[in-house]
Design a protein that fits this description.
Number of domains: 4
Shape: elongated
CATH architecture of the largest domain: Sandwich
Radius of gyration: 32 Å
CATH topology of the largest domain: HSP40/DNAj peptide-binding domain
Oligomer: single chain
Helix content: 25-40%
Strand content: 25-35%
Number of helices: 9
Length: 375
C-alpha cells in the first residue's frame, strides 16, 4: 500500500483537470458504495481507497505536494485528510445520495431514516439519433423499500441495542494532526443503534427490492454525462415516501457526425479535381440535405460552417452549428492516358508548376558557400 498511486485509484491521468478528477471520483464512489455492495468487503476497501485518493487529488495544495514528493511528502507535512476535503466529499455524497450522510458538527443520529440512500441513479445508453432528436424510453427500475418484517431496521422483530462503537451518538470524533472532526459512525451508520439479531427475511439489509416500469421523456440535445431527474421514483422510506431517480446518459457515436457540445462536425471527401475546379455538392444534416458550394481552389481541410444546423441545446438555448470539413482525395493509381494528361497540365503552368525551385534557389547557393568556407 506504500506505493499506492492515487491517480491509478481514480483511473485518471496525472494531468487530469480538477473537474475530471471529481467526475471520476463520483463515478467510482457510486459503483463501490456500500449501499450498492452490501457485505462485499472488496468493494468496501475500494471505496475507502477512492475516498483517500480524492481527499488528496481533490485538494490543489495536497495534490501539488503529492505530485512532487509522493505520499511520504504528504505525511511529512501532515497533509492528510482534513475538514475541507471531507466537506467536498460529503457535498458530492449529498448530491448523489440525497443527503443520506451526516455532515460535520453535532450529533446526527438518523434513527428515522432508512439504511440506504433515498435517491437512486441509473445509467441509460442512447443512440446518437435518440439523443439529438429526443425520444421516449421505457425502463424497468429496481428500487429499495423497507422490509416489512423488521420495519426497515434490519433487526429481527425490530429489536435494536445501543451501538458500542459510538455509544449511541451516531458519530465518532477523529483527529488528524491539529484538526478534529466528527464522522458518521461506520458501525451503526449514524443511527446510534445496531441490530441485536439480523432479520431473517432481509438478512439484515433492512430492505427488499421492488420493480417498476417507468416511461422517460428524454429531451432533444442530451449528451453523455447529462442527468435527468425524475421526482419520486427513487427508493422508498418507511412512510411510503420516494426519493428521486437520476438517469445518467451515455450516447453512442455516429459513423458520420462527430459531436462537440452542440456543434456537429462532418468530414466531406472531395476528389482533387473538384477542389481545383469548384463544384456544388450535397451533404447530409440533421434536417436533411444541404448544398455545399466548393469554390475553385478549395484547400484540403477547409471548413464550411452552417449556422444553427447542429444539435439543439437541451436547456433551450441556441442550437449549435454544423461544420463540414473537406478531405481532399488523390488518385491512388494512374493509367497511361491519365498520366500523360496530368503531365500536359503540369507543363502548361510552366515555372508555376515547380514552386520548390524558386523557394530553395537561394538556400542552395547559401549552403554551397558554407561548404566552400569550411574547406
Amino acid at each position: 500500500m506504500e506505493n499506492l498511486d492515487y491517480y491509478a485509484v481514480l483511473q485518471v491521468s496525472r494531468d487530469a483537470t480538477g473537474a475530471e478528477i471529481k467526475k471520476a471520483y463520483r463515478k467510482l464512489a457510486i459503483r463501490y458504495h456500500p449501499d450498492k455492495n452490501p457485505g462485499d468487503k472488496e468493494a468496501e476497501e475500494k471505496f475507502k481507497l477512492i475516498n483517500e485518493a480524492y481527499g488528496v487529488l481533490g485538494d490543489e495544495e495536497k495534490r501539488a505536494i503529492y505530485d512532487r514528493y509522493g505520499k511520504e511528502g504528504l505525511e511529512r507535512q501532515g497533509a492528510g485528510f482534513h475538514a475541507e476535503s471531507m466537506d467536498d466529499i460529503m457535498d458530492i455524497f449529498n448530491s448523489m445520495f440525497g443527503g443520506a450522510f451526516g455532515g460535520f458538527g453535532g450529533s446526527r443520529r438518523r434513527t428515522g431514516t432508512p439504511h440506504y440512500a433515498m435517491d437512486l441513479e441509473v445509467e441509460l445508453d442512447l443512440s446518437f439519433q435518440e439523443a439529438v432528436f429526443g425520444c421516449e424510453k421505457e425502463i424497468t427500475l429496481q428500487y429499495k423499500a423497507p422490509c416489512e418484517a423488521c420495519r426497515g431496521t434490519g433487526a429481527k422483530a425490530g429489536q435494536m441495542e445501543t451501538c458500542a462503537t459510538c455509544g449511541g451518538q451516531g458519530q465518532i470524533v477523529m483527529r488528524q494532526g491539529f484538526m478534529t472532526f466528527a464522522q458518521e459512525c461506520p458501525h451503526c451508520g449514524g443511527r446510534g443503534k445496531v441490530a441485536r439479531e439480523s432479520c431473517p427475511e432481509c438478512q439484515g439489509h433492512s430492505y427488499r427490492i421492488k420493480e417498476e416500469t417507468v416511461t422517460l421523456s428524454i429531451p432533444a440535445g442530451v449528451d453523455t454525462g447529462n442527468r435527468l431527474r425524475i421526482p419520486a421514483k427513487g427508493n422508498e422510506d418507511a412512510q411510503g415516501r420516494r426519493g428521486d431517480l437520476y438517469v445518467l446518459f451515455y450516447v453512442e457515436e455516429d459513423e458520420h457526425f462527430v459531436r462537440e457540445g452542440n456543434n456537429l462536425y462532418i468530414e466531406v471527401p472531395v476528389f482533387f479535381t473538384q477542389c481545383i475546379l469548384g463544384e456544388n455538392i450535397t451533404i447530409p444534416s440533421l434536417e436533411g440535405e444541404l448544398e455545399l458550394q466548393l469554390k475553385p481552389g478549395t484547400r484540403d481541410r477547409a471548413q464550411f460552417v452552417f449556422r444553427g444546423k447542429g444539435v439543439p441545446d437541451v436547456h433551450g438555448g441556441r442550437t449549435g452549428d454544423l461544420i463540414a470539413q473537406i478531405k481532399m482525395i488523390l488518385p491512388k493509381k494512374l493509367d497511361t492516358d491519365q498520366k500523360e494528361l496530368l503531365e500536359q497540365i503540369q507543363e502548361s503552368f510552366g515555372v508555376e508548376s515547380q514552386p520548390h525551385k524558386n523557394r530553395f534557389e537561394s538556400a542552395f547557393t547559401k549552403i554551397k558557400n558554407w561548404i566552400k568556407g569550411e574547406k
